[in-house]
């Protein structure tokens, strides 16, 4: 009879010893899931802003419109910062937007050798993520940033 009572208590002791570890593991997984969710939201907001600006040459210079599009997409992200820009590249250059700024030309006064400049839109979004608890070796504040670049389409609207 005494042996049976001891066996029943063993499960309760195992639960008491293992439960704090399981709760901590759940908090860590949830915290990093939140970080990835915010990072995806920051990237999605950058894409939304650049997609708005790439619709036409007129919208490529509409910075408030690009900011509004990015803010609308990332409205659940607190402290979202949006920075839209546009730049031009010569049609004949063998450059990509990811290369150095030596390929970028002024949009309002392209060189004579450039017959038709390409207009590009770039939206940079950033936010900071704060962890729930301090983890050893991991900063408690994580800066998140995303940059999206698209070529603007010809058109007036």
What can you tell me about this protein's structure?
With 157 residues, the protein is α+β, with helices and mostly antiparallel strands. It has one domain (2-151). It has helices at 2-53, 57-60, 63-73; strands at 81-89, 104-105, 118-130, 141-151. Strands 2-1-3-4 form a four-stranded antiparallel sheet. The longest helix is centred in the N-terminal third of the chain and has 52 residues, at 2-53. The protein starts with a helix and ends in a 6-residue tail after the last strand.
Q: What's the topology here?
A:
Blueprint: H1 2-53, H2 57-60, H3 63-73, E1 81-89, E2 104-105, E3 118-130, E4 141-151
Antiparallel strand pairs: 1-2, 1-3, 3-4
Helix pairs in contact: 1-3
Q: What key attributes describe this structure?
A:
elongated; single chain; 157 residues; 3 helices; four-stranded antiparallel beta sheet
Short description:
The protein is α+β, with helices and mostly antiparallel strands and 157 residues long. It has one domain (2-151).
What best-fitting shape do the alpha-carbon axes yield?
elongated
Helix proportion range: 40-55%
What is the number of independent domains?
Answer: 1
Which structural class fits the helix and strand makeup? alpha+beta
Overall pLDDT, averaged? 86
Helix count from the secondary structure assignment: 3
Major sheet details: 4 strands, antiparallel
Strand content: 15-25%
- Major beta sheet, strand line-up: 2-1-3-4
């Amino acid at each position: 009879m005494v042996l049976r009572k001891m066996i029943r208590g063993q499960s309760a002791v195992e639960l008491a010893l293992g439960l704090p570890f399981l709760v901590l593991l759940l908090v860590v997984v949830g915290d990093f899931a939140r970080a990835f969710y915010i990072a995806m939201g920051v990237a999605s907001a950058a894409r939304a802003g650049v997609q708005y600006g790439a619709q036409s040459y007129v919208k490529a210079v509409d910075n408030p419109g690009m900011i509004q599009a990015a803010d609308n997409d990332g409205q659940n992200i607190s402290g979202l910062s949006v920075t839209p820009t546009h730049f031009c590249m010569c049609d004949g250059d063998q450059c990509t937007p990811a290369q150095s700024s030596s390929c970028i030309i002024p949009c309002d006064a392209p060189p004579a050798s450039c017959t038709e400049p390409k207009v590009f839109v770039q939206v940079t979004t950033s936010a900071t993520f704060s962890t729930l608890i301090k983890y050893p070796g991991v900063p408690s504040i994580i800066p998140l940033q995303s940059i999206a670049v698209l070529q603007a389409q010809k058109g007036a609207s």
